[in-house]
Fold these 2 entries.
Entry 1:
Amino acid sequence: MTDDVWIRPEKEKLGEALGVGSWTRVFAYAAIVVSAQILRWSLFVAHGFDLGYYQQGMAALVHYGPWARSLYTGRGVLAPNSAWLALVLAYPAVWLGTGFLFLAESLAIASGYFPLMRLARAWSVPADAASFVGALYLLSPLLIAGNLYDFHMSMLAVPLVLFALAAMAEQRFGWYLAFMALLTGCGSKAAIAMLLVAVIATFRRTGWQWGAVSLLGVLAWMLLGLHLHSGNIAQLGWVSIPWTQRVGDRAIIYAGWVLAPFVLILGAVGVRWRKFPGSFYGLLALVYLAGNVLSTVPAETSPFDQKSALMVPFFLLALLDVAARHKAPWPAKVRTGGVVVMLAMLVVMSADFYHSAWRVRPANGLALEHALATVSLAHPVYAQNNVLPHLGFTVNQVPFSRLDLSHLAPGSEIVWDTQFSDHTAPASVYRAVAALAANKSRARVIYDQGGVQVLKIVGQP
Amino acid sequence: MSHSVRVDGQEAQAPHTPEPQAGSVWKARWRQLLLGVELTRNLAVRDVETRYKHSILGLYWAIINPLVTAGIFGFVFGVIFHESSKPIPYVVFMLTGITFWNFFANGIMSAVGSVSGNASLLAKIYFPRIVLPTAAVLARFIDFMFSLGVLIVFILLYHTPICWSTLWIPFILVLQVFFTLGIGYLVAALNVLYRDINQLMGLLLLVWMYFSPVMYPITNLKPSLRSILLMNPIGSILQMERDVIFTGHLQYPQFAWGAVAWTAFVFMAGISLFRRIEPMFSEVM
């Protein structure tokens, strides 16, 4: 009986890398990360300046078009980082809600697994090494951290970088340019990654002309689109440390965290092959990392910031490149060790999540929910960093930091969680709100429970 | 490209066959899919027929089961523990939960033994094995349609107002069917290797039911506890079903997206694992 003898040829196995198994891994990533994102949001620990900013901005883009103003910054929504893809995402997001935004971000990032596998196929990387690198992508703590902390347009650049490089490797130059054009929509934080993609494309043997064109295009975009010049180069958040200043301990620990898994994997492979496996892509990734380390902006040396996630594709390209050039199979111990290291880093990250989300969740969550149910959203609603993401896609959400008593219009509402304060609003704002709550001719308290007050402005200053 | 060709229980490697045209491959796949759908439908109908054929009450069992369960839980939680689900009458509230939950739980319990219980059929002819758990789940969907009739009667009896958004129920049910199928594929395949799965699932479903908002409302729970309960995809699906019927809108829409992601993952993981274990079926059985 040969009924259940199932011999699968190698070619079919390679095809599987883009089949059901891949989709399972991609959806596994999306399900886990989306759940963590939703948990953060539901515990009132999501940040207004990460998520609320985009909710208000996207609602404004839908209502007032591309020139809409952000109530967070007072400038155009697209002005601070030119992330024009927000305009495309705004319509479904405003209709389908915050959960959709989370899922769209996570699925988009997870989909970077596919171009990575396509690159592996184009470079004839052995199947075991390819799926190992794919696993490292989906388990990357830098990627998951960038994805987990609410929402950022620049995170969408991670898969686009990989899609662009896969298109280049497959000599689909039209697609390559299309992905590069889409990358410009992810904002200024994606600029360095774009530049590196264009450099990689320019140094190719075939189709380098397309790379050169894209390199010129990226430089033009940086100069004309981002208005980059020597005076404001710091907006890229890259190499802004004065030459006289020493690199701090924080930056060194950060570099160690970023490099650890890759150094361990390449080191182990190097010992086995008795030759350190260098790679052009690894060099580019190190240049990117060095730029972050040499930055004065604290976020640039944070493993939870999105710019750290943007380095991941380049480090993984280095691994693929090494695997492609040394056709020898990767030792199983190295692969297992690499996955274990990533998992250990994720455990450390989970501990951070526990301390930064679960342990600090407000005890008055139910009161906050009831308070939010009383808010009308027809007029501006002022709220703190923890409450802003719960106002949803409304053009009227305004952060506490923009609260100005002399300009508070009648009908405006203030949601004040008296048990919360953070650095995003100065102490003077809290004093002003407390004075307002006591001034019955100016404001009426329409909700007051569990340390949460909702004030409605009824009179002129 | 090399294919393994299976005809009437025979498998032959055909490495020398010429490369098929893309169009003809898709046509063949489409024909296979239609055959699979037809077979699934026939097996599901046969499952329902044989289940009730020699019983005195026949299909009435599909109605009696949820009624008795609802009666017991209604007495315990509604009368003894005074569980409140205002403004929805508690009996209606709980019967809604039980009806949708039973489809999920019964679907899984039917799928568990669907492959291992059909060893003789597997030995006789070749057909895509995944049809068996699919048919088992769909057979319970037929039962579920009868239970839904009971729920509608109770809603009318208690004059419980329902919303127009009830029309979304079919879409949420699609999600629930896919989630149930995903788990069904996983347990059906694993049960061939380890027969403990049958016992384990019975126990697991009991625990799972109490951790899902089947018998209690979650609206007034602390957000942290409620979030944990809604992270459970079937909990979120049940809440969505109740919300669209009685509330008119989703109270926790963010968690609905989580349920979508988990459903997609579980469904793909189910297919993936089933395919992986499938070649071992004949060895084990």
Note: The mean pLDDT of chain A is 88.
Entry 2:
Amino acid sequence: MHGRLKVRSTEEQKLLKQKEQQKKLRAYKYAMNQVAATRKEIPFNKDSLMLCAQVLSVNPDVYTLWNYRKEVVLQQLEMSKDEEVDDALVSFLENEIKLTEQCLLDNPKSYSSWHHRYWILQRHPKPNWQQEFSLITKYLTFDDRNFHCWDYRRLIINKIGISLCNELNFSTERLNINFSNYSSWHYRSTLRKLDSECLEEELELVQNAVFTDPNDSSAWFYLRWILSDRNVTNEKREELLESLTQLLDMDPDCKWILMAKCWLTGSLSLTDNHFAEKRIMDYKKLKELDPLRKGQYSDYLECAKKAIGTEK
Amino acid sequence: MDYELPTEFDIIIVGTGIVESIVSAAASRIGKTVLHIDSQDYYGGFWASFNLEQIDKLCERNQNANVDISADVQLNEGERLIQIGNNNFDLKNTSQKWSIPEKLELKDVSENVEGDNCDVTETEADNGTGTEEVWTQEKLMRESRKFNIDIAPKIQFARGDFVELLISSNIARYSEYRSVSRVLTWLNGELEVVPCSRSDVFSNPKVSVIEKRMLMKLLGACMDSEENEFKDYKIKTFHTYLNDKRLTDNVIHYVLYAIAMSTVDTPCSEGVENIKRFLNSLGRFGKTPFLYSMYGSGELSQAFCRLSAVFGGVYALNQNLGGFVFDAENKFKGLVCGKQQVIKASHLVMGIEKSPEEFVKSVEVSYISRGIFITNGSVKGSEKEHLTLLFYPLKGGRELCNVIELGTLTGTCPKGIYIVHMFTKQINTPKEDLEECVSKLFQSEKEDSDVKDARPQVLWSFYYSAPDTNTANLRKDVPENAFLCPGPDCDLDIDYSIKKAKEIFNSMYPDVEFLPRAPDPEEIIIGDGSDEQIPKK
Amino acid sequence: MKNYNFAKYDGFILWRCRVSKVLVLRKISIDSVENLIRKKSVQSPTRKVPKHGEQNRDGTETERSYASLVLRFVKGQFHEYQESTIGAAFLTQTVCLDDTTVKFEIWDTAGQERYHSLAPMYYRGAQAAIVVYDITNQDTFGRAKTWVKELQRQASPTIVIALAGNKQDLANKRMVEFEEAQTYADENGLLFMETSAKTAMNVNDIFLAIAKKLPKNEQVTGPGGSGQGRRLTEGDAGSKATGNCCK
């Protein structure tokens, strides 16, 4: 009977898969040998380069192959040194960029592919950084936890220079979608030097995050970074301390709130001993709350006590 | 008719509503022969979506067209012929109104450059320049086919029974969805966005930091629902519980009327269950827990029909149905199709409106007040188009009015136009029941030229009472091998319908799997299955 | 004998008389940049494209030629005896158009087009249709015209309709002249090609021509995203960013 609906059994599917794998393995071995044998040839061996691309698009993590490609690219660059604009060279380089795109499609977290892409663009006579920028913006809207993208974005921005305001907005947008994201917070921290004006904004943003979810560590790290800035006045610190005390009332078992309070009282106690005592109490509570880091808190506690001692 | 249907099936299904269609898919899927037939020429019955022209004529339409008893068939002894269809479940209190002129007046035409056969997309291009588009009946009618107007709009929970069934049965392939992009509520005389998710809570500037924490804590408590937390509220309302929590009024409002979809009278346990359902459906598809099917809710039943057809279900719309044949023991024997043909089957499943009068005479009906509005803008304008769900607390928070606003991205209306559906349990007439909500959301009919009203204008409205048989006993008075399928209810989703369909399926075929996963194309071997077990190469 | 005759293959009914075929294509169109992103992140957007078929006195033949046209396109294979419709919900195939990838989902209607009852469910949101007739059978051409009329009346006003005269390999038994069909197509604004599922002639081309004629992946109203809906799958966790309120 023809046209019958037939579903493959799992057995058959397994067999197919095995065959598929063996085929891949053979192809991989063959390509690796081929590349190794012809690596030093000048001009480069076209077949090898093609095979190399095929393997990479399946497994972009073979850095030997990327190195081989770089050698070939250098060869090409060397050859076209004298001419002004070499169309053949440009299309050769564009091809490399396309290859990395293909590889990233398969594995968006491939170090080698990202590196190769940037490496090529740097040597490109007419690099289209703007296009790279929109690409990376798009990519980040789909996966904002891919730190490769954030890194790449920083590299691109250095090349094209775009307005701080736009970048801040972009970062806020990403945080609004998901603030449990070290990368977004960190990226934000690289954008500008804090001054008294923007401090207010940043403190508000970070408070929104820690009040929404005090158990999420990423915003606390950002807060810690803000607090390391000398522009944060003692008044600000006291204000924040007050607000965190309120938060602690609502969530008395959250170690992050206590820790943040200690960061604040740490700097405040330099001028006012009253805060030092609070600090000691908070460390004691932390020891109970977070017994896994008992030793660390004891250490801090000792330091805090000592500080009071010397003052007296 | 240039064809005749086969004369025998395992099961005949009359009506293409959602329950009927699910039963049809489930029966075909396990290899039963199914005839799925409808007197109407469209899918969905009371669940259908219509274009503007069709819905315009809906009031005139007789639900049971093509049904007549004048069939000329030979009956065996003891058999009797019963007329198909009844009028117990018709839409009532229908009132339809255009609020825009039929055509532009002459002087307007000369000002307006567009001609009769203008390219629609071209006129839309200047949408952004701020000039408001002038709509006429004629102009909307020209775009009639871009409308898919639900008479029973439905929203699905991303982790509700419907979505789970769609995925587990692999029927999800047959339809596309859009996530509801914002949930609104009516708070302090304004429409406000409800912070649904953790990120919404974080980014909502109208919620103070302390409120952020309250909201998150409360939702957490409902989610964990430890016994101690609610032990004192077994007979109290959810509203009481919230009040006792010493929350701010805003937080209580968001939680009670929006996230818990409750009223001041909702029992505590129900409110908590609703919150769990809401939160469980978050973070699966899109920013809110809700999904709407592209091209209208009428697509829902079609997805199931599609699977039924692929597994052999025979589909025939627009059929002349001459009557049902029942034998002396009141057992269903067959369906008379056309004038003469009797199609036999051992089971009959039918939409409640297709049922003979005698089976439904004692079915109790309550009504849903529904209103559909075509407007020229969103109830809460914004940069991008939203798919909006609004729970509007009516009458001091005693009833909720469900409001769904659909834009062109849902494939249910042309660009520049929104469709707003409203529904609530009927108390008076639809118009009276919805009046409060309508007056808040739209421009008033009386034009007040002094004050510019930023609210959208209603271009067309349609009010009606739709029957709800959710609480009725549909087995009473019904012969053993015949089953009635309820129509749309007042719920937001269709999970109740799935439950009903499953019940009907299980009474016919106990101990058989209900809609097992259908194979993917990749799993199917095309061609000669016998000698080509595994394709070469 | 009644005037119908059908065979059932594992749940797929095949009518052997007076069949006219309806198939749906859904187009998935993605540019290369998005491709890179979407593959890992979200479901591809889709478009609906219904495809219409021919009918024939001799149903078997028609079924064969029709299903086989699709099979040829999808699998690059031709089965002489491909009788029933394919049975799967739909098959998918990708064609490359400049730097755009267009993916078609091809749906069939399980072989019961004669009731005209499966077609209505394809009209909504449909963007293109192929109406197929058999060049060796004048009747099928007549029926194809009816389909075109129905499409123009029922489907979206912007639908792209293509007319395909199939079985071009049997041109020596031709009953419908090329010119006749071409004129009809021109008058009605249809794409037209004669195809052969057997020799693969024009099979890919007709889909390519449709892909070209369809509007490019327009970004409808900016940030709201494309005009396409979301497919629900188990694997699609949505934007994980959204996160659950209470983890």
Note: The interface with chain A takes residues 198-199, 201-203, 209-210, 212-214, 216-217, 519, 523-530, 533-534 of chain B (CB under 8 Å).
